[in-house]
Amino acid sequence: MIHYHGGPITPRGAAISAWTRRHAMISFANPDQLEIAAEVCQSFSLDNGAYPLYTAGDFNQRIAALTKQQPAACFRSEVRGVENNNA
Fold it and tell me: Averaged over 3-14, what is the pLDDT?
C-alpha cells in the first residue's frame, strides 16, 4: 500500500520537506502545488476533489462545469455512504 501525503501543505518549504522522495495527493480542486509535487515526489496522484463538492451540495453542478472546461482531465466519481465513512 502506498501512503500518500495530502496537500496543500504550507508554506512551500514545508511541502517540499514533507513530500521529498515520498508520495503526494494533489486535489483537482486545489492544484496549486502540483509543480512542487512533480519536482520532489517519488510519485503523486491527482484527486478529483469530489467529496468536498458533494458535502457542499453542489457536486453535480460543479462537476458538469469542470467537465466542460477540461473534458480529458475530468472523470466522475461516485460518493457513497455518509460523511463518517469518509473521514
Answer: 93
